[in-house]
Every structure is written in C-alpha cells, then in structure tokens.
Specification:
The complex is a heterodimer of chains A (402) and B (88). Chain A has 14 helices and 14 strands. Chain A is an alpha/beta fold. Chain A folds into two domains: 238 residues, 3-Layer(aba) Sandwich (Peroxisomal Thiolase, Chain A, domain 1); 147 residues, Peroxisomal Thiolase, Chain A, domain 1 (3-Layer(aba) Sandwich), CATH 3.40.47. In chain A, the strands form three sheets. A ten-stranded mixed β-sheet of chain A has the order 5-4-6-7-1-8-14-13-9-10, with helices on both faces. A two-stranded antiparallel sheet of chain A has the order 2-3. With 88 residues, chain B is mainly alpha-helical. Chain B is 57% helix and 0% strand. Chain B has four helices and no strands. Chain B starts with a helix and ends with a helix. The chains are: A alpha/beta (402), B mainly alpha (88). The interface between A and B is small, with 8 and 8 residues.
C-alpha cells in the first residue's frame, strides 16, 4: 500500500477567505457566528449563523461561470484553486488522466433550488433560468473543479449529511493509497444558509437561538455555517520526487454505520469508527494528541461523542485534547469535515490546538479536556477528525505529522 | 418597434457571445458568433423573458425547432413573428 500525504490546502468559510486567515482566526478563538442576512430572514425563528461575508463572487468568477455556479460550487472552486496552487501541481498528460476529485456536500445547489422555487411558487412565474439543473446537481462542484484543473481521473460526489466531507476524503485517501490515483483533490463545501435551508432545520428543533457551545452544560443546539475546504492528497513518493512541501500524512480512515436511528447518534457506532481509524493507521490510542470532535453543541451528540471517545481511548481519553471548532465556524453540514481538517493540520504542523469557544459551565457528561475558550500551543504527532452524520453514518480520519 | 426588437436581440446575443453589440451584424450565423449550446439556450431564455413570449426551441435538435436560428436576422424575424402572434 502507498502512503498518502497532503500537499495543498484551501478554504473559504466564515472565519476567513483563505487558510492563513482561517487558522489565524481559530488561534485567536474568533467567533464567526452572528446575525444572518438573506431574504425573508424575518420569517425565521433562527436568525444566527456563520455566513461567509465580504465575498463578492464577481471578484472571483467570469460572467459565464457565475451563471453556472451555485454558491456551494463557488466555495469549492475557490478552495480548490488555493489548494492546487499551494501544491504546485499542474495536471497534464498521464497525471491529468489518473487524478480526480471527490468532494462532499449534503445540500448541493440548495441556494439555486430555493431561489427558483421562489420564482415559480411565490412569484408565480412560469419560466426559470435554463441552468437550474446544472447549478443544483450535487456533483456540480466536483465537475467544475475537474474542468478548472484538467482532472480526468476518478471523480464523484459523496453525500452523507454531516459526514459527507470525511467520507469523501476517505474515498480519496483510499484511491491514492491503493495506487488507483497518484493525486486526488478532495474535501467538501456547503451553502444552506437561505430561507428554505434554515426553515427545514428549524423544524427539527435542534438549532440554537443564541450560540454554539459544544460540550458546555448550557449548550442548546447547533448553529449552521457555510463554506468549504479542499485538499490535495498525493502519493508520498510522487510528492517527494518533485520536492513538494508536505503538510501532513493521511494515516488512516474508517467508517461505520449505527443501523439504529435516523437522527439520534450512537456510542457504539462512533466508537467503532474512531477505533477503526486508529487500527487502519496502525496507531495506538495513546499516539493521538488531538481530536477534532464532531461537537455539534446538541445535547445528544456531545454526550454520546464523549462516551465514544472514552470507550475508544480508554485511560488516554483524559490526557487527550478534544475541541469542536464548530463553536467558531458553525456547522458546515456536508462541508464541515473539510474545514475541520484544517484545524487538524494546524495542530500537527504548527502545534496550534484550536479551542472550543463559548464554553461557560462544565457538564459531567462531557468531562474531556475540550481546550476551552483559548487556543493551546503544544506539539503533537497524531490528530483525528470525527464526523457523525444523521442517519448514523460515521467517518473518522487520522492524520500524522511528517 | 421593429428596430427596438432588433437592437434588443442583438444586445442579448452579443452578451452571450461576449461581443460588443456593434460587432454583431444581422447576417452573422451562430457559428460565426461563437455561441455554444449553453449560450444559445441562455439567449433564448433572455429573449423569452424580455419579450414575454414562448420560443419554440428544442436544444436536443436546434435545427429541427420551429425557431430559425440560422442567423441573427432569422432569429430577429422569428421573434417579431412570435411577438405578433403571442402578444397580438
């Protein structure tokens, strides 16, 4: 089996419009959650979210592209540009024909659906723009990234709700590890912050009105974010041969299914995914220094995740640093695992352990070292990132410093 | 009226072809304009929106459509006829 390393990273999310600004915001414990701004917000009871602000698509795309790119595609294309530029790779010849793109998204072109349902139902118009279908399809982001960078190998979209990006990156990892592709561009993006998107979530009654406080006794739900992150996964010898800068190694990946409930998480499913990722990477529990938690800030997730971490890590659970960066960038649903991998890379590369902000009061059911409120600086060798989706689909990825 | 329709259609086509309206002459063909299939569909949409008409155009086989897209001139004539029939 080949070894897989990360040679590029890119992002746009509410914390920053690139990797440097995002990591800087995380290290300062900045909160990007605030009042949202979009049509009909007055009819929503949930008014807060982590929106990407100060972003004008016209600064990044030509008219033709703007007509074809939903916001989730815009985020993916921008993040991919940054990641691929950092990697220094240019895809042509055989490299182009064997390298591909795997991205995660849950809602796909939800903004496009929302706008055009409004056009036909609310405005009563009988005609929609001809590009509604190519904009809204869940694979639009993957396809546009492939076209922008001449990636002609295996490419597809993975949609597993909140675990979409982790599942996507796991597929990319295994494609490179198996030798099927020398390079895979992978990650995910999401843009659900629109009237219909938030209205649907309101119905579930799992959203917080006042903030995201993972693992805190006063937590009262999740807060949504938007954006994306994209990485270049490259076969180790391929990267070394061209003298690429290696950010981290992707050491292992595992998936599990709860086969239990469509919304409630399970300790067993989460534990099996965590333990599976360590086994896949050939790591012992005490090799791990940092866990980027799923940490949604809901009563059920954080309690369940704490129990799963304790079962998977045993005695080492108390010496682990575990944080949920969703407290800062919100829950990006299908794009969340990708943005959270940035925190894992920063932990390995710079020793910057991103905090869980908004922490007010200890909860006996969440008694882990959750790096409350302030970033910590400590050298670690292994970080894992958890993602546990609605529908009980779990995906955990393990990174190692190189 | 006829001149206004012609000017608007040229404006729509020019935008899709990424040309200045002054560079578009009525005897130019779709190929000469460099309009691809998506650009053509978007132009038809813009024509429908602006003139509040339905254009009988099938992207599966544009040549077989009732809407004659042979040239800028044929499109202008077709739109003028559609306006007459549909908006009386």
């Amino acid at each position: 089996m080949k070894r897989v390393v990360i040679t590029g990273q890119g992002t746009i999310n509410a914390l920053g419009n690139d990797v440097v600004s995002t990591i800087s915001a995380m290290s300062k414990g900045h909160c990007a959650i605030s009042d949202m701004d979009f049509p009909n917000i007055d009819r929503l009871s949930i008014k807060i979210g982590a929106q990407v602000k100060g972003f004008d698509p016209k600064d990044h795309f030509e008219r033709q592209q703007l007509g074809l790119y939903d916001r989730f595609t815009q985020f993916a294309v921008i993040a991919a540009r940054e990641a691929i530029a950092q990697s220094g790779l240019i895809f042509d010849g055989e490299l182009a024909e064997t390298s591909g793109v795997v991205l995660g998204t849950a809602g796909g072109g939800l903004q496009t659906q929302d706008e055009n349902y409004r056009t036909v139902y609310e405005d009563g118009k009988n005609r929609v723009h001809p590009f509604v279908v190519p904009r809204l399809m869940n694979n639009a982001a993957v396809s546009h990234v492939s076209m922008a960078h001449n990636l002609k190998g295996p490419s597809f979209t993975v949609s597993t709700a909140c675990a979409s990006s982790n599942h996507a990156m796991g597929q990319a990892f295994n494609l490179v590890r198996s030798g099927a592709a020398p390079v895979m561009v992978t990650g995910g993006s999401e843009s659900m912050l629109c009237f219909g998107g938030i209205k649907a979530w309101e119905g579930l009654r799992v959203m917080s009105h006042d903030g995201c406080r993972p693992f805190c006794a006063t937590r009262n739900g999740m807060v949504q974010g938007e954006g994306g992150a994209v990485f270049v996964f490259e076969e180790l010898e391929h990267a070394r041969a061209r003298g690429a800068i290696i950010l981290a190694e992707v050491a292992g990946f595992a998936m599990s299914s709860d086969a239990g409930d469509i919304v409630m998480p399970s300790v067993g499913g989460a534990r099996r995914a965590i333990a599976g990722a360590l086994k896949d990477a050939g790591l012992n529990p005490d090799d791990v220094g940092y866990v980027n938690a799923h940490g949604t800030g809901t009563a059920a997730n954080d309690k369940t995740e704490t129990a799963a971490i304790k079962e998977a890590f045993g005695d080492h659970a108390t010496s682990l640093m575990v944080s949920s960066t969703k407290s800062m960038h919100g829950h990006l649903i299908g794009g969340t695992g990708a943005v959270e991998l940035l925190a894992c890379i920063a932990a390995l590369k710079d020793g910057m352990i991103a905090p869980t902000i908004g922490y007010q009061k200890a909860d006996a059911n969440c008694d882990l070292d959750i790096v409350p409120n302030e970033a910590r600086h400590k050298k670690i060798d292994v970080a894992i990132s958890n993602a546990f989706a609605f529908g009980g689909l779990n995906a955990v990825i393990a990174l190692r410093s190189v | 009226m006829a001149q206004a329709v012609q000017d608007k259609i040229i404006e729509i086509i020019a935008e899709q072809a990424v040309l200045d309206p002054s560079e578009v002459s009525t005897d130019m063909t779709i190929e000469e304009l460099g309009l691809d299939s998506l650009g053509l569909v978007e132009a038809v949409f813009a024509i429908e929106e602006h003139f509040e008409i339905n254009v009988p155009f099938n992207a599966n086989d544009p040549a077989a459509s009732e809407f004659d897209i042979t040239s800028v001139k044929s499109m202008i004539t077709a739109v003028q006829d559609l306006i007459k029939v549909q908006n009386g």
